[in-house]
């Protein structure tokens, strides 16, 4: 699923805040059906974007290593994976 450009350019925090806003709207149950479908779809894109950002952060953190002498180091991140 191709992300819309406006979502692709969001930071994790921006996307999460937008997703929270959608959840609040849907929970109130006062959104017309067509709008509900549209914002639910947008929420799916936002969730996908947040998941990708978290996976990227996790990959970067996993590259941080501690040597046998207790020194912190890092391995290069292969972003092609």
TrEMBL record:
Q: What class of enzyme is it?
A: hydrolase
Q: Which UniProt keywords apply?
A: Cytoplasm, Exonuclease, Hydrolase, Nuclease
Q: Alphabetically, which GO biological process terms does the record hold?
A: DNA catabolic process
Domain of life, per lineage: Bacteria
Q: Which reaction does it catalyse?
A: Exonucleolytic cleavage in either 5'- to 3'- or 3'- to 5'-direction to yield nucleoside 5'-phosphates
Transmembrane as UniProt keyword: no
- Tell me the SUPFAM superfamilies matching this sequence: XseB-like (SSF116842)
What's the chief localization of this chain? cytoplasm
Q: From the Swiss-Prot or TrEMBL record, what is one GO molecular function term?
A: exodeoxyribonuclease VII activity
Question: Into which family does the record put it?
Answer: Belongs to the XseB family.
Which named protein is this?
A: Exodeoxyribonuclease 7 small subunit
Taxonomic source organism: Govanella unica
């Amino acid at each position: 699923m191709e992300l819309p450009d406006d979502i692709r350019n969001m930071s994790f925090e921006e996307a999460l805040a937008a997703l929270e806003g959608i959840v609040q709207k849907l929970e109130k149950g006062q959104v017309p059906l067509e709008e509900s479908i549209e914002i639910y779809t947008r929420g799916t894109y936002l969730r996908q974007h947040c998941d990708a950002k978290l996976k990227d952060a996790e990959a970067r953190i996993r590259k941080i290593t501690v040597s046998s002498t207790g020194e912190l180091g890092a391995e290069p991140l292969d972003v092609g994976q």
